[in-house]
Amino acid sequence: MVESSPHIVALLDIPLWNNIPPVFHNYKCFFPLSTDVVKPRVAVYIHERLLNVVSILSLFFDRGDLMVVNFHWSEGLFDTSYTLFRLYNAYSIADSYCRSVSPLDLFTQHDFPILVLGDLNICDPSWDPTHYLSDYEHFISVPYFDIASDLSFSLFKIPGLYTWFPLTTIYCPAGLDISYANNALIPYFASWNPSLLPIGWDQSVLSIDLSIPLLKPAPKGLNWKNRDWDHTTLLLADLTWTNPHPSQPHTPLTSSSMTASSKSPF
Q1: How many domains does the chain have?
Q2: Residues 6+ away with beta carbon under 8 Å from 113
């Protein structure tokens, strides 16, 4: 497992074996438990690197199409003021005139960073300017965008980049997968990119990079143990130090000298 492996992987419409999602090395899977009426449709995988430094609390709401994962670190995930980061993962099942996950299920107003991910089966002209939004699509989709806007959520999206590639010619490619961030998360957003083309399925893999100091590797320091000290000693021998002349004592910096030194030459 390379160091660049993602810390968090959110999957939708997941394959199941005995009602359990697939297992991946170095990742722990969080998913809704299967019942007679609930089948897990979402899952979140968290890398062991992240599990070793944060506390995880997952919420499932007795349903299989929506889950929440709370990440907590007492010293601050992003900076000293934010100790909590919340991730929503939703797979909204389409019905005639509604979706199984409503906008009120996803967008909430909080002061800590929130990221909302999912396939809601909704459309927006800003995703694809060439797509004509029908009255039905407008009726279904607009409530999500209105509530997100009212609660100051911003959409991660590059117009013209598709996330859904149908396997038949009946439909055209579209951008169905949504990625929303609230105002507290926006300053730490680095990039959004459908980085990999679909292979064997109809949706691409989205890559979202967040600038989180906690997850950055420590800067490399000098390796003093393996230093070539014979060569270094020769370099240090050429250094010379100039001592101040004893007849020129140090003059303390006064307010007048500070004012003079700070004058602009222009």
Answers
A1: 1
A2: 77, 78, 82, 84, 85, 86, 181, 182, 184, 185, 188
